[in-house]
């Protein structure tokens, strides 16, 4: 896909207890009032697709200098699995090829439906079903492969935020197909959670977006909204925006999911949407958001899959992925491991961890402490996000007049802070003392260069800045 996309997750199961009505020039299945389903559990573990483009790249390019970074920071984490090729004869089997191993592993897949007619208004990600009747039949086949275990469905990114190419009849057909899709998916799998496109915070106003969502059936056949798919708006902006849209919809059963796959450094200065340079990964996929209205932070758009400028839309670019990983703004907590071929390896992905969780909140700057070798290299410790019960920290090692070949930093907390996740380093905690070492690929810091790693931690009480030592 290209420009601006969206997503969200949680809500009600849709049980079709009545008949089927034919409406609006397309077949529109209207479910009778839905029975409330449980929220997406905060401990939900998402499914990592072993056949994703990044997984195939890492398997085939182990000698590439970018391999370690891409493998550790991106490929190890669950991402959206897109159904964007119109193959009606195999779609049920294609879906089962994901849902069956995910169910066997006890993990929840994130499936992205991207098949509507007039997709992307003929832009770089054009394509989709030939017409709405064909789309409805394709959705029937898609739903038939869902099984009955929990799944998250991101329904048609861009479909409601990008409608400028549609006339009134085409828009009515789109709304009918989207509403029908939510109903059909819920009828096939009551444990499915369907999130409708809500654009992002710099596109449409919350009231305008809510009007479009309502017309497309989100309040009758959806579980919530999704924002920021394949865009770069900051998580804090998207949380405020998503809550505003939910407020306009006025349905307390609806939740939101936010795509954090490329928003770690926010948007480019000119808000370019097509593969802008200098962007970074955002919060790692997790359902532990700490916010009852935000169901999850997800990597809906797989990092490294291009918008259509760095490579063909949807094609994996190792260089794009590498830059996103190096510029990661907040690796965040992940969900306890990665699934490959139905097997699960527990623990964290990038570094040491103990217990705890992560949510979202404000930001605060920490202090700087010099230390280490040669006097020309320093380490700076900063708190970049603190929400009262936990925080995200960042350490930057900079050399000026010296260099490092392998590094270790350590500090001692003065309170009860406990690491829950680290990225771009290997960290351990013994009591109140934390020791972080380079990950191999980032061990060299040249004169004039720098390396940054990050971590999440939990705490209660105060959170003063510790003294950091560089060795």
Automatic annotation (TrEMBL):
Catalytic residue list: 120, 158 (proton donor)
Pfam families linked to this entry: CBM_2, Glyco_hydro_6
Region (Disordered): 333-371
Domain CBM2: from-to ranges: 370-471
EC number assigned by the record: 3.2.1.-
GO function term, MF aspect, one: hydrolase activity
Name of the top EC class for this enzyme: hydrolase
SUPFAM superfamilies the UniProt entry points to: Carbohydrate-binding domain, Glycosyl hydrolases family 6, cellulases
Keyword Signal: yes
UniProt keyword annotations, A-Z: Carbohydrate metabolism, Cellulose degradation, Disulfide bond, Glycosidase, Hydrolase, Polysaccharide degradation, Signal
InterPro entries: Beta_cellobiohydrolase, Beta_cellobiohydrolase_sf, CBD2, CBM2/CBM3_carb-bd_dom_sf, CBM2_carb-bd_dom_sf, CBM2_CS, Glyco_hydro_6_CS
KW Disulfide bond (keyword) present: yes
UniProt family annotation: Belongs to the glycosyl hydrolase family 6.
Protein known as: Glucanase
């Amino acid at each position: 896909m290209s420009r601006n996309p969206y997503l969200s997750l949680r809500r009600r199961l849709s049980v079709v207890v009545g008949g089927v009505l034919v409406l609006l020039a397309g077949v529109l299945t209207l479910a009778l009032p839905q029975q409330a389903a449980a929220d997406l559990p905060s401990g939900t573990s998402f499914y990592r697709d072993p056949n994703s483009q990044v997984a195939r790249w890492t398997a085939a390019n182990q000698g590439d200098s970018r391999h370690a970074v891409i493998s550790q920071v991106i490929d190890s984490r669950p991402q959206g699995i897109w159904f964007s090729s119109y193959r009606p004869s195999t779609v049920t089997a294609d879906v089962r090829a994901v849902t069956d191993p995910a169910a066997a592993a006890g993990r929840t897949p994130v499936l992205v439906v991207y098949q509507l007619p007039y997709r992307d208004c003929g832009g770089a990600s054009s394509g989709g079903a030939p017409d709405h009747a064909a789309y409805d039949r394709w959705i029937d086949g898609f739903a038939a492969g869902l099984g009955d275990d929990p799944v998250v469905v991101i329904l048609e990114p861009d479909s409601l935020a990008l409608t400028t190419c549609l006339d009134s009849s085409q828009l009515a057909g789109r709304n009918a197909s989207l509403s029908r899709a939510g109903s059909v998916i819920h009828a096939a799998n009551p444990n499915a959670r369907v999130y409708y496109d809500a654009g992002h915070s710099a596109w449409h106003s919350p009231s305008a977006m809510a009007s479009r969502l309502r017309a497309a059936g989100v309040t009758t056949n959806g579980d919530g909204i999704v924002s920021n798919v394949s865009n770069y708006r900051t998580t804090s902006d998207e949380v405020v925006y998503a809550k505003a849209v939910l407020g306009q919809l006025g349905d307390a059963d609806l939740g939101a999911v936010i795509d954090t796959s490329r928003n770690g450094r926010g948007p480019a200065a000119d808000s370019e949407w097509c593969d802008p340079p200098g962007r970074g990964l955002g919060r790692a996929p997790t359902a532990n958001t700490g916010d009852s209205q935000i169901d999850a932070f997800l990597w809906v758009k797989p990092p490294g899959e291009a918008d259509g400028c760095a490579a063909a839309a949807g094609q994996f670019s190792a260089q794009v992925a590498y830059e996103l990983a190096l510029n990661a703004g907040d690796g965040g907590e992940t969900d306890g491991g990665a699934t490959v071929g139905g097997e699960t390896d527990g623990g964290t992905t990038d570094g040491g961890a103990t217990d705890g969780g992560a949510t979202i909140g404000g930001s605060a700057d920490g202090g700087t402490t010099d230390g280490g070798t040669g006097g020309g290299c320093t380490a700076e410790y900063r708190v970049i996000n603190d929400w009262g019960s936990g925080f995200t920290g960042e350490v930057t090692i900079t050399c000026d007049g010296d260099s490092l070949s392998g590094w270790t930093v350590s500090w001692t907390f003065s309170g009860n802070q406990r690491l829950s996740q680290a990225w771009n380093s290997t960290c351990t905690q013994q009591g109140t003392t934390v020791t972080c070492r380079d990950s191999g690929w980032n061990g060299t810091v040249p004169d004039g260069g720098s390396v940054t790693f990050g971590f999440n931690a939990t705490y209660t009480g105060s959170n003063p800045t510790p003294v950091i030592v560089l060795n």
